[in-house]
């Protein structure tokens, strides 16, 4: 069984030590909780104290070893270690050599063997002391390997006995280095939670001759379900139908789970029908996506909560695939609601087929709210990327990149304006461009930057994008760059009084404030973007009162308890950062440094699945999606980010409707009751987002909050339209 890991023990994986003790037991030291060790004789008699150890022919040495009395004892000891992470185990034994006794041709040796429940892969081995060495020297021998990646084991038995002609046998600590299996599944383990989940899945699935063939269930789209574990499902409802709601212009998703308890499901295909309302309106199949989720390997052997396969790319190209027996396979179902459809309930189906198995049809109902989301998300999201295209823009990521400007992009300004983009970086200026001796820009550099920015700014203004423009300055700069930042921002503020100058520099956000390394704010910079763990709600409010914007960002940090977009973080993290958390903390925007960085461009595309070769590195902080045969693939993290941006828009529409109703002094008891429920979401401390380190990870709570906000928006807008 996969157990929670203690702090990492290094790159070798998980280490377990067994240290012989005077009381006939082993002291256990392990990086894994739940490991147990038992000692018995060959006939199964337990060795539990010094007396039973002596009865077995062994005794405490007084210096950390168990040994046989001279020319006596030395019966076989069976040492069974259980509760290890399922995987491959390297086993080592410490032993102690002594000088050879004159006239005795034999060294001091013992026998050993390893057993993992299968025929041994190698014969029993004699471990020999090397005569004549210093008796204080301790040696370690590699006893062997137990388990394989294909056949992992969580238990091993080591046996040791004195060789028959040996004068003395003696051994010390046993070390086990575990490389946890990537492919070990816990779905068949007999825990109460597993049994409940299996029963529900199979109850929902198709039957043949009265027996379930495979299991089916529907869960939230804001959930990472790993293929070989039910852990993510333990506290989640497992529905038999897809039921969801969305505003006009919104994307909304659910996950259909397929579980085959034993045999592989081969030749699996999926399809979905158009969605039709009672009045005959149709959301066509072209607005729907139904495809398998792919899994990426993430080898972190010292951390069992992370080690293994992670759901990430949505394999839109994969038309037929296999679901391994014992796996819970996710199928991604997504609807994009056209902006021109009428409100109401739309119904359809999705169907799963497999060779030699009955098909399964899952009903779909979608409630379309009677309001539309803005054409482009209200929260401004800027990124570092090496590509600009429709794919990124479809997720609300503003085109251009924080690190460079390509002058060919000015040709795209009219198209970007039509799409409604809200942020365009006109230039990036940072420390490595400064004079290496003075750490300052030259006058010629300042003139050149001004010329470039003016040309781009004017082109953006002609396209109607003036308010979207900004310049990114001094990425994560410290106090050594203060003078350069003052010179650059001062010149740019003089030339472009209304332009947003945005920085992640580690400085203060408003005049009079300081930071730890002594630097004060740089007054000409009007856009500050601290990491979320440096964001302060009250200080950000002070900065905004002085006309500054305060954004926030994440990258390869922070880790928990802060929210982040990292692979091992729950999907709710990314959604909250873009949505309920961002709105509560009133952040003016979100910055992320790499959508497709690191080795993305040099990696081969994913061409098969569901298991892929796209290995995760460093928690996937340097890319947000993977490469498919025809370009970037949708990913669970991007989907969660876009859901969060849509949540933000729900909250914006609700807050604006509240303001409009107050201005005309109109309301209803029902709206007042809804207002009392949703108004706490406009600030931290609301239950869903208590603080930046205390927030819900339950997608049901998040989606219930979103539902309440949607009801308020729909009813408030309807009332306002009557006036």
Describe this structure in words.
The chain has 723 residues and is α+β, with helices and mostly antiparallel strands. The protein folds into three domains: 167 residues, Jelly Rolls; 181 residues, Immunoglobulin-like (Sandwich); 175 residues, no CATH class. The chain is 21% helix and 29% strand. The protein contains twelve helices and 36 strands. Strands 1, 2, 4, 5, 7, 10 and 12 form a seven-stranded antiparallel sheet that branches. Helix 8 runs parallel beside helix 10, helix 10 packs parallel to helix 12 and helix 11 runs antiparallel to helix 12. The longest helix has 29 residues. The protein is globular. The two termini are 63 Å apart.
Structure summary:
With 723 residues, the chain is of the alpha+beta class. Helix content is 21%, strand content 29%. Strands 1, 2, 4, 5, 7, 10 and 12 form a seven-stranded antiparallel beta sheet that branches. Strands 16, 18, 19, 20, 23, 25 and 26 form a seven-stranded mixed beta sheet that branches. Strands 3-6-11-8-9 form a five-stranded antiparallel beta sheet, with no helix packed on it.
Overall CATH architecture of the largest domain: Sandwich
CATH topology of the largest domain: Immunoglobulin-like
- Quick one: overall form? globular
Stretches where pLDDT is under 50 for at least 5 consecutive residues are 1-12, 97-112, 116-134
Fourth-level CATH superfamily of the largest domain: Immunoglobulins
Helix-residue proportion: 10-25%
Structural category: alpha+beta
Number of helices: 12
The proportion of strand residues reads: 25-35%
Compute the number of strand runs.
Answer: 36
């Amino acid at each position: 069984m996969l157990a929670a890991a203690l702090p990492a023990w290094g790159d070798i994986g998980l280490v377990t030590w067994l240290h012989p003790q005077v009381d006939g037991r082993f002291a256990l030291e392990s990086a894994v909780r739940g490991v147990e060790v038992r000692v018995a004789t060959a006939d199964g008699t337990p060795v539990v104290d010094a007396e039973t150890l002596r009865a077995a022919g062994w005794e405490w040495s007084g210096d950390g070893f168990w040994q046989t009395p001279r020319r006596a004892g030395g019966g076989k000891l069976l040492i069974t270690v259980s509760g290890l992470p399922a995987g491959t185990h390297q086993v080592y034994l410490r032993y102690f050599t002594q000088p050879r006794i004159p006239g005795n041709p034999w060294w001091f040796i013992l026998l050993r063997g390893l057993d993992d429940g299968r025929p041994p892969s190698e014969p029993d081995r004699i471990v020999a002391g090397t005569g004549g060495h210093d008796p204080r020297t301790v040696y370690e021998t590699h006893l062997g390997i137990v388990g394989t990646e294909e056949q992992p084991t969580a238990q091993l038995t080591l046996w040791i006995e004195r060789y028959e002609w040996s004068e003395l046998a003696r051994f010390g600590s046993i070390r086990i280095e575990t490389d946890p299996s990537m492919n070990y599944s816990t779905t068949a383990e007999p825990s109460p939670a597993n049994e409940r989940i299996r029963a529900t899945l199979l109850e929902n699935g198709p039957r043949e001759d009265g027996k379930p063939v495979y299991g089916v269930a529907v869960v939230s789209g804001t959930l990472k379900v790993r293929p070989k574990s039910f852990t993510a499902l333990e506290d989640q409802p497992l529905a038999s139908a897809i039921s969801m709601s969305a505003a006009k212009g919104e994307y909304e998703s659910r996950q259909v789970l397929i579980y085959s308890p034993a045999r592989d499901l081969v030749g699996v295909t999926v399809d979905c029908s158009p969605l039709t309302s009672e009045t005959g309106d149709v959301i066509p199949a072209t607005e729907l996506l139904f495809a398998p989720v792919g899994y990426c390997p993430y080898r972190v052997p010292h951390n069992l909560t992370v080690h293994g396969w992670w759901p990430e790319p949505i394999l839109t190209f994969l038309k037929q695939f296999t679901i391994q027996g014992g796996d819970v396979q996710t199928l991604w179902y997504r609807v994009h609601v056209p902006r021109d459809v009428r409100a109401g309930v739309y119904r359809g189906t999705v169907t799963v087929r497999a060779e030699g198995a009955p098909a399964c049809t899952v009903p779909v109902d979608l409630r379309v709210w009677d309001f539309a989301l803005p054409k482009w998300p209200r929260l401004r999201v800027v990124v570092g990327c090496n590509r600009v295209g429709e794919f990124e823009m479809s997720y609300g990521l503003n085109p251009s990149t924080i690190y460079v400007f390509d002058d060919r992009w000015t040709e795209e300004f009219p198209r970007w304006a039509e799409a409604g983009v809200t942020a365009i970086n006109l230039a990036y200026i940072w420390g490595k461009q400064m004079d290496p001796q003075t750490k300052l820009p030259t006058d010629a550099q300042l003139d050149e930057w001004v010329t470039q920015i003016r040309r781009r700014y004017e082109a953006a203004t002609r396209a109607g994008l003036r308010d979207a423009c900004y310049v990114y300055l001094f990425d994560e700069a410290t106090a050594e760059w203060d003078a350069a930042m003052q010179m650059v921002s001062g010149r740019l503020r003089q030339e472009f009084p209304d332009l947003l100058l945005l920085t992640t520099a580690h400085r203060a956000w408003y005049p009079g404030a300081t930071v730890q390394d002594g630097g004060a704010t740089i007054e000409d910079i009007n856009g500050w973007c601290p990491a979320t763990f440096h964001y302060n709600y009250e200080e950000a409010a002070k900065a905004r009162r002085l006309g500054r914007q305060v954004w926030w960002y994440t990258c390869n940090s922070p880790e928990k308890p802060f929210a982040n977009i990292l692979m091992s973080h729950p999907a709710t993290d990314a959604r909250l950062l873009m949505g309920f958390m961002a709105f509560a903390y009133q952040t003016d925007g979100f910055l992320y440094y790499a959508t497709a960085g690191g080795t993305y461009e040099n990696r081969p595309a994913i061409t098969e699945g569901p298991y892929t070769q796209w290995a995760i590195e460093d928690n996937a902080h340097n890319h947000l999606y993977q490469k498919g045969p025809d370009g970037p693939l949708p990913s669970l993290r991007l989907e969660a980010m876009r859901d969060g941006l849509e949540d933000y828009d729900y909250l914006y529409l609700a807050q604006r409707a509240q303001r409009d109703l107050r201005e005309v002094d109109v309301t209803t008891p029902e709206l007042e009751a809804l207002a009392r429920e949703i108004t706490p979401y406009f600030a931290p401390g609301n239950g869903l987002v208590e603080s930046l380190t205390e927030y819900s990870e339950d997608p049901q709570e998040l989606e219930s909050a979103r539902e309440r906000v949607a009801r308020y928006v729909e009813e408030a807008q309807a009332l306002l339209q009557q006036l």
